[in-house]
Amino acid sequence: MVDLSQYLPILIFLGIALALSCLFVFLPMGVSRLTGSHNPTAEKLSEYECGFPAFEDPRSQFDVNFYLIAILFIIFDLEAAFLFPWAVSLDLTGWPGWITMMIFLFELIVGFAYAWKKGALEWE
Amino acid sequence: MLQTIAFYLFATLVVASAVMVIMSRNPVHSVLWLILSFFNAAGLMVLVGAEFIAMLLVIVYVGAVAVLFLFVVMMLDIDFASMRAGFVRNAPLGIAIALVLLAELVLGIGAYRAGALILGTPDGTAAPLLFESNIESIGALLYSRYLFLFESAGIILLVAMIGAIVLTHRERPAAHRRAHQDIGKQVRRNPKEATFNASPEIGKGIDL
Amino acid sequence: MDFGNYLALIAPELLISISGLVLLLVAAWVGDSAARPISILAALVLGVACFMVGPALFDGASGPDTNAFAGQFRADGFAAFAKMLIYLSGIACLMIAPAFFERLGAMRAEYPILILFSVLGTGIMVSSGNLITLYIGLELNSLAAYVLASFLRNDGRSAEAGLKYFILGALASGILLYGMSLVYGFTGTTDFTLIRAAMTLELSTGALFGLIFVLAGLAFKIAAVPFHMWTPDVYEGAPTPVTTFFASAPKVAAVALTVRVSLDAFGLQADAWRQIVIFAALASIVLGALGAIGQDNLKRLLAYSSINNVGFILIGLAAGTPQGASAVLVYLAIYVVMTIGSFVAILMLRDADGNYVENIRDIAGLSRAKPLIALILAGMMLSLAGLPPMFGFWGKFVVFQAAVQADLILLAALGIAASVIGAFYYLKVVKVMFFDEPAGVVQGRSETGHWVLLIGTAIIVSPLGYLLTIPLGLLADRAAVSLSLLP
Fold first, then answer.
1. Nearest-CA neighbor of C222 among C176, C271, C272, C191?
2. What is the domain range of residue C341?
3. Which of C68, C110, C190, C472 is within CB 3.0–4.6 Å of C131 for a Cys-Cys bond?
4. What pLDDT, on the 0 to 100 scale, is given for residue A60?
């Protein structure tokens, strides 16, 4: 078990974030309820001109390109995740560690160049 | 004390949300419960002192994998109601398999408790290599001792990229491709080249 | 750390990965029109890699000098033997592919690159001296293989094969990882040598569970019963050149890996895994033979044949001796030649419209339309059945010999008895080709490259192959000894 007190700032941060977001949501609702008149009808609650119907089956066929972009995102996300331990331990690993990461990045840059040239990053 | 409370909080939430993943009727809700489960698993990782794994869980699983799950669930458009229709019919088989798995689990844990445990060899390579934090220890090992495996993992990521492109990317025929924007050409245009006067006869158009 | 030595030891891997990266960029810039030149270049790269592993193979390199990266990677004679087979079968799969895919209008420059990376993964597998290396090599190979299986993405069967292979493969990876985590937890190390040391005295129950899960995950990769279900579907659905690849390079790698893990890491606990291997061996032989009987698709038939052959290979492993390991290597070498020959022969059968013939009814009376292909295919079938004049007999012979010398006489007897069942369907194919009324389906000419491969493999499989027994046996013995099995 670790000393949890070092996570106190994060906890406080989360608490403040939660409180603020609650405030932003409920304060306008409460203020408008208290100050204005409140008599909704079905027409008033429906989406007006812009906006999607709020409740419908979310499963609709959509372009496989979304999937391709998501996969590419995961790959580069993982690549970025490997940079963190590398950055904090560079004083321990030295030049070999630096070269190792450069080779790793080069492998993925080759992949990136391939994806770019193939047009996988273009959106039609 | 605080750790204990936090542990039970996270553990209960992991189990509860994992149950909800398989219980909820809407697959999109399942994915959202899965995300909650990942978050709490990350909390558990923090408790055992594995901050790097916790961070990976949040960044990779919550940030990327769960999004991909959502895409797939939405893209497949499976009628889950019809899939559940066979549930009653297959239930006896399912229960039998569950019992076998339970027996295995009990046996495994029982054997684990009874057997003489020699955890780890004194001269094993897994000797704790403690620097300031475990993220630093991971880095110190991953980029020196295990660098060959690290580079191979890079190749795996590259193959995943090639595979995704090979399987899903379709080259559009040139006619359908959007015209390429050449900013230099746009800037170089001047009114003399871009416009011209024409006086067409009545009832006739002009060729552009 | 002495990086210079390490780089020399991983030279074949370095060569393959660097050329893979370069060819990938070429593929991106030049496009699919360069698919054929890239295939030729990739085959050349694998040819050079063959020469690179040659010295280790002929010297039977062993000992600490062959360990790179703190024992994670081993470039010993055993790995060199397996790599030689892998590279050669990779070259064969690169040779047969362009004609096949071009006819379907689906040749893309990524095919040779994916083959290269898959071969790289298999090379890492056979060289692994650490559970993590094992897993990385396996995943590199599998990931490329999943994509290759559904390479004809507009073909429903190919896409289905890829999906099935991927889902079941991911499940097997999960089982393997679970086993590895148990082994790591109970021995405290992932290094094969240290696991061996930690398992010297007695095997704790947890480690036993880990061992079983690891073997189950590997059994999936070599398609041994009861983890064989994916094989017929994947072999049938995948494009034929890719099926040829699946049946050769990854199979060699997975078998070699299983041998190394069983004899090296778990070598002192042979009694713990011997029963499992014996069961898988007999079940594979029997099920492979029985399953094949009702098939009328030639690729499905060969899939069951590969399950059947894996059973015989496992008999050699069950012996658990250096001689058994050597028998496994000899069998693998012969098996790879037979399987490539059979698939190439099937690739050469096309109907009047240029479609590929896969149904057994369509090759009825092939001996009259294409006498040479029919003759060679018949030879391959007889050899797969292990009938004496053909070279395939020798593989079965050495395996049984190893089993008998390890006092597994009953296992050897059962194996020989079960191989009789297998002979039935091989003979059925021969009968259909030679004695049935001609179906008149097969027509058209075949490519020179296919002929070269077909005749080359046919010569090795024919009784002339027995000239190879002494050098092959010598190399396999040296390779097996380099596993350093001494307790």
1. C176
2. 3-481
3. C190
4. 62
Residue A113 touches partner C, C-beta closer than 8 Å = yes
Q: Do the domain assignments include residue B108?
A: no
Q: Look at chain B and report how many structural domains it folds into.
A: 2
ipTM reported for the complex surpasses 0.90 = yes
Question: Do B160 and A75 count as a contact with CB atoms less than 8 A apart?
Answer: yes
Predicted confidence (pLDDT) per residue in B132-169, tens digit: 678 888 888 889 889 999 999 999 999 999 999 999 88
**A–C CB contacts, 8 A cutoff, strictly below:** 16
Place of tokens 């659905």: C237
Question: Which positions ≥6 away from A13 have C-beta within 8 Å?
Answer: none
* Partners of C68 in beta bridges: C73
Give the closest of A70, A103, A110 to B68, CB-based.
A70
Report pTM.
0.88
Number of domains in chain C: 1
Chain A touched by B9 (CB under 8 Å): no
Residue B94 lies in a domain: no
The answer to whether residue C54 sits within a structural domain is yes
Which residue does chain C place closest to A115, by CA atoms?
A: C28
pLDDT for C164-222, tens place per residue? 999 999 999 999 999 998 888 888 888 888 888 888 877 777 788 888 999 999 999 99
Task: CATH number of the domain at B46, please.
Answer: 1.20.120.1200
Inside any domain, residue C450: yes
- Does B119 sit within 8 Å of C188, measured CB to CB? yes
* CB C476, CB C315: distance < 8 Å: no
Alpha carbons C306 and C384: distance in angstroms, whole number: 9
Burial B106-128 (b: 16+ CB within 10 A, else e): eeeeeebeebeeeebbeebbeee
Q: Residue C136: which of B147, B156, B167 has the nearest Cβ?
A: B156
CA angle C62, C63, C66 (to 5 degrees): 70
Q: How many residues does chain B have?
A: 208
Closest by CA to B43, choosing from B17, B74, B22, B70, is B17
Helix (H, G, I), strand (E, B) or coil at C350: strand
Is C487 a domain residue?
Answer: no
Closest approach of chain B CAs to the CA of C123, in angstroms? 12
